Amino acid sequence: MPINVMIVDDSAVVRQVMEDVLKRHHDIKVIATAADPIFAMTKMQQQWPDVIVLDIEMPRMDGITFLKKIMSTRPTPVVICSTLTEKGADITMEALAAGALSAITKPTLGLRNFLQDSSSDLVSAIRAAACARVGRLRTAPMVADPSRVKLPGAPAPKLTADAVLDAPVANSHLPTTEKIVAVGTSTGGTQALEVVLSALPRNSPGIVVVQHMPEKFTQSFARRLDSLSQIDVKEAEHNDRIVPGRALIAPGGKHMVVKRSGAQYFVEVIDGPLVSRHRPSVDVLFRSVAKAAGRNAVGVIMTGMGDDGARGMKEMFDTGAKTFAQDEASCVVFGMPKEAIEHGGVSEVVSLSQVAGVIERHGR
């Protein structure tokens, strides 16, 4: 059976571009388009879609209001279509917190550019959303916003991911008791990360995170997590140190690798090709952590579609790291954890509610 999709966007051009893209895929069927949520609700009474691709800024009713109505009455997988602006990114974070599964960038440069640059993201997002169990989405409670200290970073070098992964790690075998935690996640991960990071105390071990997300959205995402958490959360910059009480989020469109100098860990943010169909890639992060930290690392793989992270987690496991996968019962999409388990790289399977405790206990 094809995935029945509804496109809700006030731009007729955007609706047509998306529909033309999706017609090329036999497993996806556009059953309706609508210029705003009011028209959409009328059409949805006739046939309810499996996935909704939703704009945010529209006349008569905005996308956030529409999203909240859907999630409170009949939870349905929603993919947000947003502009690559700071305002668009901030509103997208609000939509993800309200229950949207993922976000793609709006096609603003015409059909040809969209077909070349973003159409695969749209198709992948729809397929992942169709597999999701939206009833398992959770959001984190707000906590007091502590003072934050943001450290400056240096420009990133232009390197290939493979070259970085194959490079030797300086001083990786010097004694150290410093623990670091590497986390990888995708569809449903924005809400899962809120649950986990907001539950951690300020003295938690240093954390590095890859969440599959478009370029420029990760900065807003990190700011949101920072406001919800006792630990400091920031979008990673080149040469940022990994220190207790801080989580570094890989920037969208860049790979993040962990390196070690003496007893200290830091990250490099690099350009490079897609790895496991993603940039940033969980595999790139996990493989670098295996080389740099070995048994001093803790790995966590959570909800998401596909197999990104499975091979990297196996490398972490083989070097003595403690590795954990989120269980199927609490996952929105069990794909990534399932693949990691099947690759033999998981020490223990835990529920989402246990992940913060695992990080705190094994990261000491």
UniProtKB/TrEMBL annotation:
PROSITE patterns, alphabetized: CHEB (PS50122), RESPONSE_REGULATORY (PS50110)
Keyword terms: Chemotaxis, Cytoplasm, Hydrolase, Phosphoprotein
Name of one Pfam family that matches: CheB_methylest
InterPro entries: CheB-like, CheB_C, CheY-like_superfamily, Sig_transdc_resp-reg_Me-estase, Sig_transdc_resp-reg_receiver
Molecular function GO terms recorded: phosphorelay response regulator activity; protein-glutamate methylesterase activity; protein-glutamine glutaminase activity
Highest taxon listed in the record's lineage: Bacteria
Protein's GO biological process: chemotaxis
Major location category of this protein: cytoplasm
Keyword Phosphoprotein: yes
Domain CheB-type methylesterase, chain residue ranges per copy: 175-359
Residues annotated with 4-aspartylphosphate modification: D55
Post-translational note: Phosphorylated by CheA. Phosphorylation of the N-terminal regulatory domain activates the methylesterase activity.
Location of the Response regulatory domain: 4-121
Known EC number: 3.1.1.61, 3.5.1.44
Catalytic residues, chain numbering: S186, H212, D308
Catalytic reaction equation(s): [protein]-L-glutamate 5-O-methyl ester + H2O = L-glutamyl-[protein] + methanol + H(+); L-glutaminyl-[protein] + H2O = L-glutamyl-[protein] + NH4(+)
One GO CC term, this protein: cytoplasm
Top-level EC class as recorded in UniProt: hydrolase
PANTHER family according to UniProt: PROTEIN-GLUTAMATE METHYLESTERASE/PROTEIN-GLUTAMINE GLUTAMINASE (PTHR42872), PROTEIN-GLUTAMATE METHYLESTERASE_PROTEIN-GLUTAMINE GLUTAMINASE (PTHR42872:SF6)
Family: Belongs to the CheB family.
Listed HAMAP family: CheB_chemtxs
Biological role stated in the UniProt entry: Involved in chemotaxis. Part of a chemotaxis signal transduction system that modulates chemotaxis in response to various stimuli. Catalyzes the demethylation of specific methylglutamate residues introduced into the chemoreceptors (methyl-accepting chemotaxis proteins or MCP) by CheR. Also mediates the irreversible deamidation of specific glutamine residues to glutamic acid.
Domain remark text: Contains a C-terminal catalytic domain, and an N-terminal region which modulates catalytic activity.
Descriptive protein name: Protein-glutamate methylesterase/protein-glutamine glutaminase
Species assigned in the record: Niveibacterium umoris
Lineage: Bacteria, Pseudomonadati, Pseudomonadota, Betaproteobacteria, Rhodocyclales
